[in-house]
Amino acid sequence: MDDFVYAETDPAELARYREEVQTWMNENMPRRDPVNPWHPTQDDDERSSRNRELQRRLYDGGYAAVCYPKEYGGQSLTAAHQKIIDDVSMDFDMPILFSVPTLSICGPVILEFGTEEQKQRYIPAWIRGDELWVQFISEPSGGSDMAGALTRADRDGDEFIINGSKIWSTFAQRSDYALMLARTNWEVPKHRGLTMFIVPIHHPGIEIHPIQMVDRTEEFCQEFFNDVVIPAENVVGEVNDGWTVASRLLFHERAAVGNASPYTQGRHRNRTADGVEDLAAIARDHGGADVGRHRQRLGHMETLSRVEDLLSARVVKGIEGGFLPAPAGSLVRLFHGLSRTERQTVAMEMQGDRALVWNQGEDTGAFGTEYVQRQQSCIGGGTTEMARNIISERILGMPREPAADRDLPFNQVPRSG
Amino acid sequence: MRFDLSDDQEFFRETARRFIESEVPISVVREWHDLPDGCPPSWWQAAAELGWTSLMVPESLGGGSISGRRVVDLTIVADEMGRGVTPGPFMPTNVVADTLGRSGSPDQQALLEGVLAGEVVLGWAFCEPGGDWSASHVAAEAAPANGGYVLTGTKTAVEAGAQAHHLLVTARTPDGLAQFLLPSKTDRMTITPQESLDLGRRFAEVRLDGVAVGPDALVGEPGAVAEADVERQRQVMTVLQCADSAGSAARVLEFTVEYAFDRYSFGRPLASYQALKHRFADMKLWSEASQAAVDGAADALADGADEARMVSVAKAYVGDYSVELMHDCVQMHGGIGVTYEHDLHLYLRRATVNRGLFGTPGDHRVCLSKMMGY
């Protein structure tokens, strides 16, 4: 399985579906407040439970995770149907917290590698809004070198004992399960000694520490594992074949970050400068006299925003038609990272000094703060440097970067500190 | 190249590519640089036989498209011509034929038979010296006189101006913009070939020194009809330029990637250096995004939805990134990349001309900003 199925669908059927979804959303989903919108991915208990409640509403209506197979709680529909839901849902509050990583990254991994028991146990629980998942993949010792994981899982009969630490999991403290990559064999090269596990998060021996980001939100966490006992039935795929599973997980992560996953629901909006229309409003309200310069920036951001959508669509078609290899999702990831940082820069500049110094009670400082942490969009979900490696090596076929650890048993690989 | 071509469109594309590769390889492109008219008339007739001039002509007048989405079909050829830096009056002939098919009188439409055969070339005299390629910059005057008009003004950068058998002239009447179709041999109209950065295509200045025309020279009507026609012409011309530049950029990237594999320094191919690989990754991104922008604009024109916005998006993106990509490819080549002998400059010349004519990326960004109410 190299990519998703984007089945052709009759335009008349899609038009009918759009109407159906619109009618249902009008009656059943809360309308997005255009002035003071609800932000589903900010961190607090209220948002987490509201996400679960909204997911349940979608499920009850038959509009939750529609690309998932019917037998696991989905609707067995196409990416085109999901896109219609995404379009229509722009005017409504959506349970965006379920999109990434639960439905779009962990989900397809379980679909592909999970046992039948795992699929039946876990997938319907996501789609119903009962359980949120996270990824325990990155480690403090290195972000991009995922296969260099140091967290260990030692076999003890029908169980594994986990020790180590993971980082950058999203909202782990409010989630239920995690996909975790751990080392099960230290005598072989790094890619051949890893195993993927399903780990219950609120479990003896697991400590979760939220990480405060530059804007003081606590979206990400670090976890510490101290003799955590996991049953062997929680292995995903084969023991010591975790890299195969992780590679697919990365593929789905790139698709999700690049807006090319059929398993996300709704579209993410940031607090500032979501759409280019918002930038136009900022320019009108606060842009001052420099109209010519702001016009250039606005026109440029509108261009990038439209081209990003067109590029996503082109890459999906290209992969589907065999014109581009599956890693082409990295093109969208790279474009997105670059355009987002630019947008945050433009939004901050258009606010002028109000983004830098503001009156008590005003919220224009958020533009300054987001600017300060703008590189986040070029780091999270795989850095833009990794995307450039993937594009040059796996699309253009250029030689891979030399790796000092490729054929060395992992316990002989040099490490930092 | 698009990823969603039908079998018929793919056959059409493949035929165009083979025709260009066999009839006008780069060595021939260079020979044709010395032809005053840019290409032999017999070759243009052969291109017309492949359907290159029929796509915008209504079926009732003998034309026909491949898919029914005419602008999309047209960009297939433009993309291939960009890949080959292929000369020929492709853009103006099709853009003017489109307008004649829609707004022309029966006498004017009778010309389309010759267009279909590749025997009649059409040009569009639009831009004026110092103009910004907007409809509002047109100052050439069409003063009503004796039931007809007297035309006065100067037009510049008229593509195929000296090769065209008829010119569509955009001018201003008391009732608003109007367009006139004039035979190239018209009293008091002077057509002077111009020099161009693009060595393949031909451009001319057209001076109108009190050209008296009858009402039968009008194409459509002054005012709203002509304004809609002009807008459509600008949009189709712009999307063709963008398709041409995107095709050029894709081709330049292709041969520069090959070069990076073949060229060794310090005992390893250029393609193995991460510093260069990352630049190639950016270029691949720009190339695919340019193609996506062209696809989006062509779709908008074919579907009649949000055309002005999507055309400006395409020009703002492709205009800038196509030439940036090519400059980077020059850099990847090193010294050989800035020689006359290497083909790179042929592409860069053409893409630079495409970038500037019919509005710079900056002009189109301003248009977009205004569409957003700022």
Task: Please explain how this structure is put together.
The complex is a heterodimer of chains A (417) and B (374). The longest helix of chain A has 30 residues, at 291-320. In chain A, 41% of the residues lie in helices and 13% in strands. Chain A has helices spanning 11-28, 45-61, 79-88, 99-113, 116-127, 242-257, 276-286, 291-320, 329-351, 365-372, 384-395, and strands at residues 133-136, 152-156, 159-170, 177-183, 194-200, 206-211, 220-231, 235-236. In chain A, strands 1-4-5-8 form a 4-stranded mixed beta sheet. Chain A has a 4-stranded antiparallel beta sheet with strand order 2-3-7-6, with no helix packed on it. Chain A is built from 11 helices and 8 strands. Chain A has 3 domains: 11-131, Butyryl-Coa Dehydrogenase, subunit A, domain 1 (Orthogonal Bundle), CATH 1.10.540; 134-248, Butyryl-CoA Dehydrogenase, subunit A, domain 2 (Beta Barrel); 270-395, Butyryl-CoA Dehydrogenase, subunit A, domain 3 (Up-down Bundle), CATH 1.20.140.10. With 417 residues, chain A is of the alpha+beta class. Chain B has 374 residues and is of the alpha+beta class. Chain B has 3 domains: 7-116, Butyryl-Coa Dehydrogenase, subunit A, domain 1; 122-221, Butyryl-CoA Dehydrogenase, subunit A, domain 2, CATH 2.40.110; 226-371, Butyryl-CoA Dehydrogenase, subunit A, domain 3 (Up-down Bundle). Chain B has helices at 7-23, 26-32, 41-49, 70-83, 90-103, 106-109, 112-116, 224-262, 274-303, 307-333, 344-356, 361-371, and strands at residues 122-125, 141-145, 148-159, 166-173, 176-183, 189-194, 203-213, 218-219, 264-265, 268-269. In chain B, the strands form 3 sheets. Chain B has a 4-stranded mixed beta sheet, covered by helices on one side. In chain B, strands 2-3-7-6 form a 4-stranded antiparallel beta sheet, with no helix packed on it. In chain B, strand 4 and strand 5 form a beta hairpin. Chain B is globular. The mean pLDDT of chain B is 97. Classes of the chains: A alpha+beta (417), B alpha+beta (374). Chains A and B meet through helix 7, helix 8, helix 9 and helix 11 of A and helix 8, helix 9, helix 10 and helix 12 of B.
